[in-house]
Specification:
Blueprint (H helix, E strand, L loop, with lengths): L32 E2 L2 E2 L9 E4 L2 E4 L4 H12 L13 H13 L10 H30 L3 H13 L13 H13 L10 H11 L8 H13 L13 H13 L10 H7 L3 H4 L5 H17 L2 E6 L13 E4 L3 E2 L5 E5 L12 H9 L7 H4 L3 E9 L3 E21 L7 E7 L7 E6 L2 E7 L12 E7 L4 E6 L2 E7 L7 E22 L3
Helix pairs in contact: 1-3, 4-6
Length: about 500
């Protein structure tokens, strides 16, 4: 028997209780990155294994790779997730089939892959429920206290569609927003210290930030040249940034909230600006809340970097290059812009071709021109990814997206470029290569000095919709990745990029 045929032969036999697969081990992960893609070196075509005296050539199979990844997540040691059917993978399949009362064949099949995928999702759902239950238990806040907290946050203009007395995801997001706005520890917990802080705000002459009041303030700020965003009566990050900037110029306390003094400086009377939302607005908000509860989205990544670093809540890990958090609370990276021998900006297609043409991977000098960072998260394949970012430098290249496995470039990647006006490119990158699956029909710019918002959704059928600053710019149907994702990564292949905030949700549709 040729024991060098496959990594399965060099590993100890199956251990039923394994840590979760997908752990990135720093430099040992050998992540290969370039421009819009990041590829692991393919397995040699000369990999062989044999039973008795018979030799069988191993061939990469994406379905086998999905089965390996799922088995490892469920605690069955299927060996490396390389898509090659070896003895460890067959043994793990047999054990799984035996434990689940399936026909024990040791063979990979579509029905087996779907069975494993269902079990992985159920295991993730149970873990999320346990995590949420633990968080609720730690808070130890009585329903009446939560009701009062929700009421106060709603009065201050935070997104609490319905006062329920439950410390749900929406309330925790509102708490985090309040904590960020007031330079508090951002943990989403309804602690006694937070409740006292909120009560202090509401008793200190704060204006009720209903939609009509917010809309009036947005209009007044925009008229004075402060970019408060659309005049929609919603207290978003652009509006709060504009309020703080105005308060700074007017010599007022930087609360980021609408105060009596702020209204007076804007020439708005408190009685005229303040009011209550109409009954139709409340009804719409309640309907929206009901839809959200029914669809069941779960936020798995949420970071505005307002705590001054990227190492906690959530933890981001640097794979390559240099990253930092600016004083203004943004994740930033600055890398040299890649150009060809004639001094021209390298085109996306050439970057991809350079990777695919090198069967052994990326040369070290190419890796040094990239910066990559990621955070681990259990993200379903029906997801929503939103971010706000800006760029500088003609020819800058950046991509963002969910990844699978231990290579933070394998998955869906949305490519952004600043060489004049460029279309957005959506790629699917697997072990076998990179494919452009869609491009926007309109050209966009990211080096105009403005902060741009990207809203990216993928439904259970594979339909992906990408909005840029509120307008749909790309729609494409693709089912390359059927399994869930292991995290979100950012890759800077040139230029200065700044990410103000990022959020990823499993939609659970």
């Amino acid at each position: 028997m040729n024991k060098h045929a496959h990594p399965d032969f060099d590993r100890p036999q199956r251990s039923r209780l394994l840590p979760r697969a997908g752990c990135l081990a720093g430099a040992a992960a050998a992540v290969l990155l370039l421009g819009t893609s990041a590829l692991v070196a393919p397995q040699s075509a000369a990999a062989w294994t044999g039973e008795a005296s018979t030799a069988v050539q191993l061939a990469y199979d994406p379905m086998v790779q999905r089965i390996q990844r799922g088995l490892n997540r469920l605690g069955y040691d299927a060996g490396p997730t390389d898509g090659l059917m070896g003895s460890m993978t067959r043994s793990a399949i047999r054990d799984y089939q035996r434990d689940n009362d399936l026909l024990v064949t040791g063979q990979a099949s579509t029905s087996l892959a779907e069975h494993i995928r269902t079990n992985v999702r159920e295991e993730r759902a149970e873990r999320r429920s346990e995590t949420q239950a633990e968080a609720s238990g730690e808070a130890e806040v009585e329903r009446r206290t939560v009701l009062e907290l929700q009421s106060s946050l709603r009065r201050l203009g935070y997104d609490i569609p319905v006062v329920t007395g439950r410390l749900d995801d929406t309330t925790q997001q509102a708490i985090r927003a309040y904590q960020r706005d007031n330079n508090l520890l951002v943990d989403g917990r309804a602690s006694p210290e937070l409740i006292a802080h909120v009560q202090g705000k509401t008793s200190a002459g704060m204006i009720v930030e209903d939609r009509e009041t917010i809309r009036s303030v947005q209009e007044a700020l925009n008229e004075r040249g402060y970019d408060a965003g659309p005049e929609d009566g919603i207290m978003g990050s652009s509006t709060r940034d504009a309020i703080r900037t105005f308060q700074s110029d007017a010599g007022l306390p930087l609360s980021g909230s609408i105060t009596q003094e702020t209204l007076a400086q804007l020439g708005l009377a408190a009685g005229a600006a303040a009011g209550t939302a109409t009954g139709s607005d409340d009804s719409d908000e309640q309907d929206s809340a009901g839809d959200s509860a029914q669809s069941g989205p779960v936020t798995v990544v949420s970071d505005s970097f307002s705590d001054g670093n990227y190492t906690r809540s959530p933890r981001w890990e640097v794979v390559a290059g240099s990253w930092s958090v600016t004083d203004g609370g943004a994740l930033a990276s600055d890398m040299p812009i890649q150009r060809d021998q004639n001094g021209q900006n390298v085109k996306p297609q050439e970057l991809i071709k350079g990777i695919l043409g090198n069967a052994l991977g990326v040369q070290s000098q190419q890796q040094q021109s990239l910066a990559a960072i990621h955070t681990r998260a259990d993200l379903d394949n029906d997801f929503r990814l939103t971010t706000r970012l800006s760029a500088a430098g003609n020819g800058a290249v950046f991509n963002i997206g969910p990844y699978q496995g231990t290579n933070v470039g394998h998955g869906y990647r949305l490519e952004l470029r600043t060489a004049d006006a460029q279309p957005l490119h959506l790629l699917a990158i697997t072990q076998r290569g990179a494919t452009v699956i869609g491009s926007s029909e309109v050209d966009v710019r990211f080096d105009d000095g403005a902060k741009h918002t990207i809203d990216w959704r993928r439904d259970p059928n594979g339909l992906q919709t990408i909005e840029l600053d509120g307008e749909v710019v790309l729609q494409v149907l693709d089912r390359t990745f059927q399994d869930d994702f292991d995290g979100v990564s950012l890759i800077n292949a040139g230029g200065s990029w700044s990410v103000d905030d990022i959020e990823a949700q499993s939609l659970g549709e």
